[in-house]
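Our platform keeps sequence and structure together, in a single record for each protein. Such a record has a labelled line for the sequence and another for the backbone structure tokens. The tokens are whole numbers drawn from a learned vocabulary of local backbone shapes. The remainder of this section carries one protein's record, kept here as part of the documentation:
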Amino acid sequence: MYVAKKELIERLQKDILQWEGYKPPSVGAGDLVGLGPVEAAFPNGVFPMGAVHELVCGSSEQAAAGGGLVTGILSVLLRQGGVSVWIGRARHLFAPALTIFGVEPDRVIFISLTKDKEALWVMEEALKCSGLKAVICEVRELNFKQSRRLQLAVEQSRVSGFVLRNAADQLGSTACAARWRVKPLPSADLNGLPGVGFLRWRVELLKVRNGQTGSWVLEWKNGRFNTIEENMVLAERQVG
């Protein structure tokens, strides 16, 4: 009787994880979006696609860093074709800059809205379109009811959603699969050459259902994310 109940509970847990976007990886798949050890923090070691991710931004610098991380993930999602939607607030995004991450601007539909209510409504409707790969939306506030509506939309369409919240001091409970915070870091010198090096961020997974929180340093290099060890970052600072 005990064994039967245990098997039933385990099966229900697996079903719930799949409904939330945490599908077991196929044999040899691994590292689905190129985040390396970051993906191991999620249930089954798989980055949840077909789910809503919340990125909290306490400043314009963090907002830009969060947008960079999302664009890097977007480049992976668009490799097999398709388009995405980006709902912005003040038209600060320079579309040609997306090519740094291998994303062609014509693969992204840009929509500019200044009111959160309107932006979230457009995001919800866009998330219902199974033909899209991802929907990114910039807002200030997001409550549990609004996030739940977004999550219900992706559970039907399997489209990935990313909410860039530009009000980190007003955080409450949401139904999002994960909550991130991304901070920009100084780039490393390119063999002593002057100029800007590869993009770097400190990526913090603040909250994740049934997973492990953590902090990592990521670098965008040669078209993919690379994990940088903390001791290497400290050594570079001392040399600098």
The longest strand covers residues 199-208. The chain is about 30% helix and 25% strand. Strands lie at 52-56, 83-88, 108-112, 132-139, 160-165, 178-185, 199-208, 214-221, 224-228.
